[in-house]
Design goal:
The chain is mainly α and 284 residues long. It contains 10 helices and 4 strands. It folds into 2 domains: 133 residues, Monooxygenase (Up-down Bundle); 146 residues, DnaJ domain (Helix Hairpins, Orthogonal Bundle), CATH 1.10.287. The chain binds zinc ion (ZN).
């Protein structure tokens, strides 16, 4: 059983903010707007610009009464495998044709190129388009790119090249962060296909699931020892591992709505995982 106190905690604006720290309506809308504008301009299909869209500073509380879990499907469906290589670009410096995109340096004159707006994070990071991507390969690619693109390397170059390196560096950071964690990776994959998960009501979660969650939250609040908190952490990790498998299977089968519902659950468990860390730090 869970008490009124725990109900209040879980349903309070603060708790909702904790549950969805990076998911704001405003950011989703801006992402969508950018996507539509971009698609219209270039006839490419992408959900993302180079702007920071996952980890913005929008205060969730400013969203007023929208403190509920809502999900929405964008009216425009973005094709599954968008190919940024459809548009042939030329090097801004030597005008040589760039044969593949996204491209960081011109093969001919070796000069840094501007970030390509809307390039798929999977392509930027040279990763397979899959939920169970190889994070070791991702990390390796990230370090390799940051080594060559880092603004420090361009301090003696033109202002334009410095700007491009800053831009490329930022995009690579964003792509890396988004793809590293299963939760943001899954949400990104759904957004690429025109499905977004918004802040809002718990329409995606049934009452049984929410009750289970409240019980875990309450148990965590009442944990008296690190062992008790660790036990909850361990169980949560197990849940997250199960969800990862289920989400992968749903995405492979193209069951996007099922994947969306599972990702919503993953969000809650990821939040509990964070709270376990906080709790453990209290025992230090
Ligand atoms: Zn060139």
């Amino acid at each position: 059983m869970w008490s009124l106190k725990s109900l209040r905690i879980v349903c309070s604006p603060r708790a909702l903010t904790l549950l969805h720290p990076n998911w704001s309506m405003a950011s989703r809308q801006s992402v969508y707007k950018a996507a539509v504008t971009f698609s219209a301009q270039f006839m490419l299909s992408t959900g993302f610009s180079t702007k920071d869209t996952w980890h913005n500073n929008t205060n969730f509380k400013t969203l007023g009464k929208e403190e509920k879990l809502i999900s929405c499907t964008n009216p425009v469906s973005l094709p599954r495998n968008y190919c940024t290589g459809q548009v042939k670009l030329n090097c801004w410096n030597c005008k040589q044709r760039l044969d593949k995109t996204p491209v960081f340096f011109c093969m001919s004159c070796k000069v840094i190129q501007p970030p390509e707006e809307g390039a798929s994070y999977f392509k930027i990071m040279d990763c397979d388009y899959t939920f169970t991507l190889d994070t070791q390969k991702l990390q390796k690619r990230y370090l390799q790119l940051q080594r060559s693109l880092h603004p420090d390397n361009f301090s003696q170059r033109s202002v334009k090249e410095q700007e491009y390196s800053e831009g490329q560096s930022a995009v690579v950071n964003k792509a890396y962060k988004t793809l590293l964690k299963p939760l943001s990776r899954g949400v990104y994959m759904l957004e690429m296909q025109g499905i977004c998960i918004e802040e809002g009501t718990d329409s995606g979660a049934d009452s049984k699931f929410l009750m289970e969650l409240m019980e875990i939250n309450e148990a965590l609040d009442e944990a008296q020892t690190p062992e008790e908190a660790n036990k909850i952490g361990h169980d949560t990790k197990g849940k997250l591992a199960d969800l990862t498998k289920e989400i992968d299977a749903a995405l492979l089968k193209g069951e996007l709505q099922a994947a969306k519902a599972l990702l919503a659950q993953m969000k809650y468990y990821a939040n509990i995982e964070e709270k376990v860390k906080e709790k453990l730090s209290e025992f230090m």
